[in-house]
Prior knowledge:
Strand content: 15-25%
Radius of gyration: 24 Å
Order of helices and strands: EHHHEEEEEEHEEHEEHEHEEHEHEHHH
Number of domains: 2
Number of helices: 12
Helix content: 25-40%
Protein name: 2410_t:CDS:1
Bound molecules: zinc ion
Amino acid sequence: MSTNSASESSPLLGLSHDTNAAEDTPEDISPPRDLTNDIFAHLKAFNSIAYQSTRNSRSVTDGFNASAEYVIDKLNKTRCDVKLQHFKVPIWEKEKEAELNVTLGSGEIVTYQGGVDFWSMRYGGQAANLTFQNVTEVRNSCDREEEWDIEGKVALIQMNEKCDLWETAYKAEKSGASAVIFYNTPKQKKLSYSRVRIVDWKEGDPLMKIPVLAASNSMGQILINSQHINITTYTKLFIVDTFNVLCYLNGHGVNESSIVIGSHLDSVPAGPGLVDNASGSSTILEILLHLEKNRFKPQNRIIFAWWSAEEIGLLGSRHFVRELIKSGENVNVAMNLNFDMLGSPNYIPFVLRGSDAPIDARNGSIKIQHVLEKSFHKNRKHYNISDMLGGSDFLPFIKNGIPSGGLYTGSSEIKSRKSQQEFGGIANAPLDPCYHQECDSIENVSKEAISVTSRVIFESIIFFSSKKNLADFLNS
Ligand SMILES: [Zn+2]
């Protein structure tokens, strides 16, 4: 995510008449002093769940289910109507890097280095051992009707950002290719890290069977004139069942709407995912438990959501929104709040930028941004604005006309000198040096970041769930 300076924010815009605290916010519900410590108790639990898992992660195929059990156990002690929403996800694993050698026209054999000159692309098919394969270059014109004569051959295709990667690869497979190699344009220096798969994959949609590799431009040039090549890949592609954990808390208002408050509960396979995103998961869990302790009566219905499979393409939240639309219930969902990464060690508290939302969800998203900003002002805390374009579970909501917003404390963005003066921490270093890595453990979580963000989140949840005529407020 890219970042912008706080000067862009307009904290009070549009709020002067709307936020009547006396009317909307019950006086007796305020964030407890030990909120941060209580959130850390959940973080410790998630840390040990990861530690006890097979690969020290909470990914869909590793510690996710144990993480979900932990949340469900807490929810069962609340007034929540708890629902597990099951869906299917494709898992792609690479045991080790592919091997490839080329026999040139001269008869000379060149062995390329996996991970340097080429690699298996994510979601690019099953393990294969292909020998004496002929390579045919096909021009990628994005034309779906154009016929490719590549039966039994390796399709060599230059990267073309204008064409959809999945459609190109799948077309090659349907044309009978034995493998696909996408090679870089002369300008592209890095191997593509893209997934070869429609991003919003759902049960029943196809996946690649044949291997798909990404290669450097120079390797591509050599392959054009090769006699034949041998390829061995060590990948696995399979489908598993997973589920979102949902808690429905009834509203008591006359014109009630629903609010979806979500955090993804899965981590990447590479690490325990404490900042990303046990921090969001623990924060919304603890806030819910505190509201329960106080027998909080929201005006609007709250749906707390712990999404699965965010790290493999926002698949949990996409499934939820798809089902919501199918049932027609989307008209009752006024908004979404998304909390993904709240405890980055070198943090900057970011409020997601509402004006990034598509037109149908823009007005409401800007309103949500302003409410969050107002809470920062009230708490005398600084913040920046971050984009809300992609990369987390707000996306399926805003794409379907449901306003969204949220907080985020940063991942691989580098902290500027100016930001360091404003927020402390370390300049010229990433906001989270352990982002998507093994070291994203409990030691990686900033108590201060959790303290700052959880207070704002608490206040915003009270504000929105207590708001009478919430839909009108967001549309005004
Ligand atoms: Zn995340």
